[in-house]
Amino acid sequence: MKSMPDSWRRETKPHKFCPGCGHGLVLKALGMAMDRLKIADRTVFGVDIGCSLLAWDFFNADTIQTHHGRTVPVIIGAKRARPNLVGIAYMGDGGGYAIGSQHLINATMRNDRILIIIVNNTIYAMTGGQMAPTTLKGQKTETSSRGRDPKYEGFPLRGPEMVASFAPEGAYVARGSVSHVQRLARYLERGLENQLQDRGISVVEALSTCPTNWRTNAEDTWKFLEKEMTDYYPVGELVSPFKRDTQKEAADLETCH
Q1: Residue 70, SS3?
Q2: Does the predicted model carry a pTM greater than 0.85?
Q3: Does the domain made of 14-256 have the CATH classification 3.40.50.720?
Q4: CB-facing half-sphere around the CA of 85: CA atoms within 13 A
């Protein structure tokens, strides 16, 4: 039996994120989806400034790091210049819902054929743990030491619900969680399939963890993710042109819980 050529060998490496960070799991789910569809050689992967930039050399795919909040228009530009590419814009909740919110809204209005992945860990993580658009009511951060008060700081933003409220026909909008990696991978795969089939924009939010800035141990980290976060940010598909497969969804939950 002939040995496998070096060019065919798949390499892996540890991620550069903090211990307990959910970014590694989100990227694992994305890698699973890309492998299933065999699209790495035609993918352009854009990463935003923030924790997401640490994914710049994670995949064997063309990657570009953008200015903060500008990943979406950069990937749209690449996709318009070369429509055969698979465009993925990867960012945190700050890049997606704060400085980059106008790009998210306009890209949805135009129904641009790209996949936008927004990692929601309820905080600005790389800069020290400040309040983000997704910080929960009562959650303490470096800039909300008494807990987020909607009277002064407003309410946490539900990004996928906002996008779904005006998403054009053919769009795909979902929210997954790193607590169910197979289910998240399924959502990301559907988002990529939606782009490959030229239907419309795909936006997938991934609920993630940040024990470093949450100042939580393993048990409390998971409890915050699976209870407090999912209570306010329910997981599921909000807009989908795909026929719902309830049996597959149940299997994903059973496998990964």
Answers
A1: coil
A2: yes
A3: no
A4: 21
